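User: Quick sanity check before I run a bigger batch. Here is a single chain. Can you write out its predicted 3D structure?
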Amino acid sequence: MTHYFKNSENLPHNRKEIAFRFLGVNYTFNVDDGVFSKSKPDDGSLLLVENILKQKIHGKVLDLGSGYGLISLLLKHQQADLQVTAYEVNDRAVECALRTAQRMKLDVNFRNQDVLLGIEGQYDVVVTNPPIRAGKQVVYTFFDLASKHLVKDGCLFAVIRRQQGAASAFKALQQRFETVERIDLHKGFEIIKAYKPLTLD
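Assistant: Done. Predicted structure follows.
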């Protein structure tokens, strides 16, 4: 069995494109077997992007666990002034993201690296659709990294299904941020905004 949050060197490639319409724009993204949501864009990720754009964000954006670049590239295309850096451990997902970015002529800094090994820089915004199937320890490490790498007034946006632990994730975020809010709920997906990071021991 293959997992999208790991590399699958022995899995045959099945490179293809998926087309969809989002916020009145037609998009085409490169995908492959062994990546998350290869058949169609993930509804939770689209809902996350839609909510983030309503928040009038600016500056440097960090996408943790960026997959084939859906969130990063949509944000950059919709708001060109953003400086987006994206970390993803899955080699072929990053390859897909780079192909799509090149075709769309978008400048996103995709990093093929396990975030658990550390990330660089400080950011105004952190976004994530965390790899729930990797386990709570990994997901909560994403939250730790977000609190550590956000600027003082920065904020985290995350999407999690209610049936996949949104309530416990909310409590975990409250241990890491002064303010945590549910800003949207749609089709079982919760969009959570957290800001004012607390100091971690």
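DSSP finds five helices and nine strands in the chain.

User: Great, the batch can go ahead then.
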